Design the sequence.
């Protein structure tokens, strides 16, 4: 009886909190001054805060469907590398399609963290491979980017590994760009920087495959950086000029996040992209030191461990 009463009170509080959040034009007051985005969509802010409150109230989220995570920056924050219109339909339309379809495939069934679907996705069939892969890859993609000028630099450890594996940062970028060019990755797909057997390697995969999948057409490993080379990721601005898009994309890479994923990958841990556990960052379950005031640890509806700035 007490549990039921707490649940009712929790839902009442959640509804009130969501209503309050929906009245806020943006959430910049939650962010350090030096990383405040230009705007944060009101509906996405409300959704993120409601999810956070439900975590605080102990409501069960395990059975909920996967969600399209809210972007941690404004749609135009990646300009001029990626234009606002592309970000809007890429995030709101294409990503939504992948999430909708994997939810349909798992309707009435357990929905584990997205990363757990990847290993057997090819064997499990098209819905898991294309839609489950697409949902995971895009969650990964939004996290590994930061507003122009706020992505930092590779950590000393990652920079040394890049130099050891590829000769220099410039040579690494050149090889990465070549792997993503139309002549190397014909049609749709992704180009990745991965950790395989403790070493860095560059690979590419078709469609929504990724290096975590058993049987992938490419080098298997743990991805720490990935560039979406589907036309929907760049065509409005670059048309057929995919190489120009990849070159411009370097300006919005969130090297702070990539460096953190590199450390995890060395320990055998793949990046998590599960939106159901995201609110932990917002409610303080994943805290950072007060010595790093420029950390951008606010994440709405998806896991957040990236940092903008150093």
Sequence:
């Amino acid at each position: 009886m007490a549990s039921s009463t707490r649940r009712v009170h929790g839902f009442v509080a959640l509804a009130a909190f969501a209503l309050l959040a929906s009245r806020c034009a943006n959430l910049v007051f939650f962010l350090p001054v030096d990383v405040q985005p230009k705007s944060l969509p009101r509906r996405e802010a409300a959704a993120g805060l409601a999810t956070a409150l439900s975590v605080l109230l102990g409501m069960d989220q395990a059975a909920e469907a996967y969600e399209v995570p809210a972007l941690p920056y404004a749609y135009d924050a990646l300009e001029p590398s990626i234009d606002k219109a592309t970000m809007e339909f890429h995030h709101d339309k294409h990503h939504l399609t992948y999430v909708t379809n994997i939810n349909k495939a798992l309707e009435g069934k357990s929905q584990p963290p997205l990363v757990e679907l990847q290993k057997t996705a090819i064997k499990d069939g098209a819905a898991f491979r294309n839609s489950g892969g697409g949902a995971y890859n895009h969650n990964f993609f939004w996290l590994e980017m930061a507003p122009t000028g706020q992505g930092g630099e590779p950590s000393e450890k990652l920079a040394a590994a890049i130099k050891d594996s590829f000769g220099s940062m410039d040579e690494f970028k050149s090889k990465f760009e070549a792997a993503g060019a139309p002549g190397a990755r014909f049609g749709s797909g992704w180009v990745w920087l991965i950790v395989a057997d403790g070493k860095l390697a560059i690979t590419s995969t078709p469609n929504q495959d990724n290096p975590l999948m058993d049987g992938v057409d490419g080098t298997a490993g743990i991805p720490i950086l990935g560039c979406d080379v589907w036309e929907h990721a760049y065509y409005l601005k670059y048309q057929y000029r995919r190489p120009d898009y990849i070159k411009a994309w370097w300006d919005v890479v969130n090297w702070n996040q990539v460096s953190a994923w590199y450390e995890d990958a060395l320990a055998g841990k793949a990046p998590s992209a599960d939106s159901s556990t995201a609110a932990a960052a917002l409610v303080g379950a994943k805290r950072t030191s007060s010595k790093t005031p420029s950390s951008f640890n606010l994440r709405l509806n998806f896991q957040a461990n990236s940092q903008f700035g150093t």
